[in-house]
Amino acid sequence: MLAIDTATAQVGVAIGRDGRVLGEVRIDGGRRHAEELVPAVEYLRDQTGITLDDLAGVAVGIGPGLYTGLRVGVTSARTLAQVLEVPVVGIPSLDLVAYPWRATHRRVVALIDARRKEVFAARYWPVPGGVQRDGEYTVEAPAAIAAELVATGSETLLVGDGALEYADAFAGIDHVELGGPAAAAPSVSALVELAAARFEREEFCRADEVLPLYLRRSDAEIAWDNR
Q1: What is the predicted pLDDT for the residue at 32?
Q2: Which of 52, 53, 62, 71 could share a disulfide with 90, CB 3.0–4.6 Å?
Q3: Using H for helix, E for strand and C for coil, what is the string for 115-151?
């Protein structure tokens, strides 16, 4: 399986088999997703000895996230799946931020920087074998999330690049801890593991059925309306 996530500033690519990662590349290249993705895939193919013909499926993080980066990742995954005639699985990128922290006993809040002083957010509770989302995927101001954390009083772990970008908004909340840089980007290792379980249950789809999870319009659309 080839796994791709480009929802944040980081390009993440992994190749896995039976839910186990054979190789992984993560590149923090700013907004150069289109330039970084194909070389990362080629490098992994060379290092693992896996050819495109060996692939039985493609997995992709569908966001929410940066509009341009997300479009690059989803379009690339769809194109590969169509050319190789293999199924594809799309998993929300916020799930990929939260899943690596499934062993914690605290509530997990995943935040992806949405720019414009907002974050994409989702709340999770650890359950046996994973995490369970509590509520919808949202786009919110960091201050609103901070107020909610103060009101609930639950021991909480904040993860994702949105937590780091707006760390000042959460400073001083005693029962809240930030996950740090290691928890900043969606995990393509988690994508391999979660997608493998979906493939086993045959919960995959055709390439044209995979769509990005956009929670708001792009900057270009808003600028056009303003003009």
Answers
A1: 86
A2: 62
A3: CCCCEEEEEEEEECCEEEECCCCEEECHHHHHHHHHH
For tokens 């594809």, what's the residue? Answer: 88
Q: Give the domains, in start order, of the chain with CATH numbers.
A: 2-93+186-226 (3.30.420.40), 94-183 (3.30.420.40)
Contacts of 187 (CB under 8 A, 6+ apart): 12, 96, 97, 99, 100
pLDDT band at 124; cut points 50, 70, 90: very high
Nearest to 103 by CA among 147, 159, 150: 159
Bridge partners, 127 (sequence order): 130
A 10 A CB-CB count for 119 gives 28
* Span 62-111, pLDDT tens digits: 999 999 999 999 999 999 999 999 999 999 999 999 999 999 999 999 99
Contact 204, 57 (CB under 8 A): yes
Peptide bond into 39 cis (omega under 30): no
Tell me which residue has tokens 């959460």: 170
Asked if 59 and 89 touch (Cβ cutoff 8 Å), the reply is yes
Question: What is Dmax (Cα atoms) for the chain?
Answer: 53
Residue whose pair of structure tokens reads 């929410």 in the numeric block? 64
Backbone angles phi, psi at 212, to 5 degrees: -65, 150
- CB contact set of 13 (below 8 Å; sequence gap of 6+): 2, 3, 4, 24, 25, 26, 37, 40, 41, 44, 188
The values of phi and psi at residue 176, to 5°, are -120, 130
